[in-house]
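Long-time lurker, first post. I've been practising inverse folding by hand and with some scripts of my own, and I keep getting stuck on stretches where the structure tokens seem ambiguous. Below is the full token string for one chain I'm working on. Before anyone asks, I'm not after the true native sequence, just a reasonable design that respects the backbone. If someone could post their per-position residues I'd love to compare against what I wrote down in my notebook.
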């Protein structure tokens, strides 16, 4: 089965197969990402109330720092989503404990 590249801008899409397998969203434009999410939602029949969460997840899958800078589409993480992502942070990850509603390092 051949890879359909008709939607791909070849100057942005990684040509390395390993890179595409690791991060299939790498090099995709925000517009393309939105279309992919829309197709996914329609294909799976997932309730539309989850659309924004799935959009955020797709952009995070593309780039874990997708929400550390201002975005033209104004998509933002809620404070509880930011907290949850801190638990997965490569530096602080599982070494964080929540004590009394505040984060503290697990010594």
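-- Answer (accepted) --
I ran through it position by position. Result:
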């Amino acid at each position: 089965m051949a890879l359909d590249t008709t939607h791909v801008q070849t100057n942005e899409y990684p040509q390395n197969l390993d890179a595409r397998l690791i991060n299939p969203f790498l090099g995709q434009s925000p517009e393309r990402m939105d279309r992919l999410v829309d197709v996914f939602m329609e294909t799976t029949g997932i309730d539309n109330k989850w659309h924004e969460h799935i959009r955020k997840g797709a952009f995070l899958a593309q780039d874990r720092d997708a929400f550390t800078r201002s975005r033209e589409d104004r998509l933002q993480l809620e404070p509880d989503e930011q907290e949850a992502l801190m638990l997965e942070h490569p530096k602080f990850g599982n070494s964080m404990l929540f004590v009394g509603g505040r984060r503290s390092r697990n010594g």
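A couple of notes from the structure itself: The helical segments are 17-22, 30-44, 51-62, 79-87. The first strand starts at residue 96 and ends at 99. Happy to go over any region you disagree with.
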